[in-house]
Amino acid sequence: MSENVLLERSDDVAIVKLHRPDTFNAISLDLAADLRDALFTCWNDRSIRAVVLTGAGKAFCGGGDLRRIFEDGQKNGVGPVFYEIAGVFHESILAIRRMPKPVIAAINGPAAGGGFSLALACDYRVMSENAFMQLAYTSHGLSIDGGGTFTLPRLVGLANAMKIALFDDRMLAADCVELGLVHETVPAADLLEHAQTLATRFAAMPVETLGRTKRLFNRSFDSPIEMQLEAERTELARAGAHPEGAEGMASFLEKRKPDYR
Predict the structure, then answer these.
(1) DSSP symbols for 154-184
(2) Do residues 4 and 31 touch, judged by C-beta distance below 8 A?
(3) Rounded CA gap, 210 and 70, in Å?
(4) pTM for this structure?
(5) Which of 77, 180, 251, 259 has its Cα between 20 and 30 A from that of 222?
(6) Does 50 fall in a domain?
(7) Contacts (Cβ under 8 Å, ≥6 apart) of 210
(8) Do 135 and 183 have their domain in common?
């Protein structure tokens, strides 16, 4: 894919790895573009049924590359630089949220700033026991991007989201589980293998159905109950007419394990 983002395959699971370890996988314009392209490749490749997102080296993602942003902003100011990078980065966030297949964040080290928001965008988050997360915007005088203001209050509630933003403390793995920021923690040596095991399990499930569920959950926050009920009705009818639905019902009636692949 590129030197900034590596895209690997393990059967029907894709592993997308941020690959700027010397900068804690900081988000530059190039990395943002390469991440977007890797995610769209995963989206469009029907043979990929689940995605693992992780970082190379000691970090998941340390956020924006502030050194480069500051240098690039010497001529016209850093505002336009932030605006350009955020636009490309946000395409990756939308790709994760709208991708009709599960995306797992394997948080192998610090996830701060844009890395914090990137992890929260994923559907399932597993974290190394020695990693930490930090919002890392407000204490640096910066506004939150990467969908953090959308995902954070939905995951932990508005009161906890405000507390996290106001104090901007580092949150250790156990704290992240307790708050609901991540689903589980594992020893560092087992992280990637565990994430791949989860992805393989998800890949064996009816992925179209997982995508429908993801789509319904996403729209539920912005839809009145009447619209949500009609959306559920429509998606149920589509699922029943899909080969996955046929296989699921047949396997239930025949008392056998379904084969969704």
Answers:
(1) HHH-HHHHHHHHHH---EEHHHHHHHTSSSE
(2) yes
(3) 41
(4) 0.92
(5) 180
(6) yes
(7) 100, 101, 102, 202
(8) yes
